[in-house]
Amino acid sequence: MCAGAAWGLTTVAIRVSRLGDAPAAQTLFYQLAGAFVILLPLAACTGRLQFHGTALAWASLGFQTFIVSFVSYLAWFWLLRRYLAARLGVLSFLSPLFGVTMGALLLHERLAPSFITGAALVLVGLLVVNGKDLLARPRTRARST
Prior knowledge:
globular; disordered C terminus; 5 helices
């Protein structure tokens, strides 16, 4: 719950501040620099700076660093500058569904009935909230004659 609230507050803070007009790379830099300044001392104080990495651990860390923390957030901040946050929220709600579905397709994992029910409820909720926008016809400008 706290992570979801933090994500929402970050999105609101970006949209209502000057960062809403800043380049996506600048917003990403501030986000990652702020996390570094806060989390590195916290990790040092709690004794969590010890890392004895295997090849798999280093590969996972590289993936999290470059793909998750760089590419995906850069794309998110770019999208946030161009589209309404409410419409982008659909991507946030669908991401876990895509992840589990890809696990089922690529790794042959079994989908539990509770997941299928939950996914259906998420989709119905998205349709209820965004259905009016999805069904609306685009307006065309009247021609001046």
